């Protein structure tokens, strides 16, 4: 259990660290867009080489596809709720959308991490670095947008601190539930994370990056994908 707590904190901490970095300095819009684009590329690699590929190897396509559909629908509904609230408040929901995406991605992903730890699977350094590469830009971008939208600094820290705590707790929960779950559950959980991420990338993260970094977005996205894919394939 101690190992699950340790790796849960390590995997979730970039979410809070990114929010702190956004508070420490004002990020120019262009640089923020490049960071978001880089993070989007890293998340694409995570979907392709970790969530999707590993799910297929575990159980085949059916549990994975069901998980993807549920994850996509969950993010879509949560996004519509955020949009409605933002419209009433006459503010943007971009930062909140990224936070919801991180939560819907982080919980199932770290559940799977905890189950793997309970099964005796080793955690590679490459995997930890890949998590940092994808989560850190996501939280920096969200926190910066929330601050620009007028949210208090304390609320931004509380939001991302809460997301990090919930994701870390999911690792511990996965460790505890390992004895009553199987490969089908792990595949479906990975698919859920992939589905939520794909909708978030298309609806929120990539458009946000494009609006800020313009022509640099594509290059930053490819660099993020290449780094995260290299780490995933070397683990």
Q: Output the radius of gyration.
A: 17 Å
Q: What number of structural domains do the residues give? A: 1
Helix amount: over 70%
Fraction of residues in β-strands: under 5%
| Global shape | globular
Please tell me the overall pLDDT.
86
Count of β-strands: 0
Which structural class matches the secondary elements?
A: mainly alpha
**Which regions contain 5 or more consecutive residues with pLDDT less than 50?**
none
| First and last CA, distance | 23 Å
Number of DSSP helical runs:
8
Largest sheet composition: none
What is the helix/strand order?
A: HHHHHHHH
Which secondary structure elements does this structure contain, and how are they paired or packed?
Blueprint: H1 2-24, H2 29-59, H3 61-89, H4 94-118, H5 125-148, H6 153-177, H7 183-213, H8 217-234
């Amino acid at each position: 259990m101690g190992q699950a707590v340790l790796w849960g904190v390590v995997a979730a901490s970039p979410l809070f660290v990114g929010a702190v970095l956004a508070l420490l300095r004002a990020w120019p819009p262009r640089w923020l867009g490049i960071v978001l684009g880089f993070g989007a590329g890293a998340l694409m690699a995570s979907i392709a080489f970790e969530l999707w590929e590993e799910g297929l190897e575990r159980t085949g396509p059916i549990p994975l596809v069901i998980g993807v559909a549920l994850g996509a629908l969950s993010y879509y509904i949560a996004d519509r709720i955020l949009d409605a609230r933002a419209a009433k408040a006459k503010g943007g929901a971009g930062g909140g959308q990224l936070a919801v995406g991180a939560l819907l991605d982080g919980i199932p992903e770290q559940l799977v991490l905890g189950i793997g730890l309970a099964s005796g699977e080793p955690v590679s350094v490459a995997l930890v670095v890949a998590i940092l590469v994808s989560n850190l830009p996501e939280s920096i971008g969200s926190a910066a947008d929330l601050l620009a939208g007028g949210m208090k600094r304390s609320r931004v820290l509380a939001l991302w601190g809460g997301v990090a705590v919930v994701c870390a707790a999911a690792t511990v929960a996965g460790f505890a539930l390992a004895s009553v779950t199987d490969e089908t559950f792990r595949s479906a959980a990975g698919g859920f994370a992939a589905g939520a991420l794909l909708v978030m990338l298309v609806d929120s993260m990539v458009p946000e990056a494009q609006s800020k970094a313009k022509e640099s977005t594509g290059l930053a996205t490819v660099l993020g994908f290449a780094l995260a894919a290299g780490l995933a394939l070397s683990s």
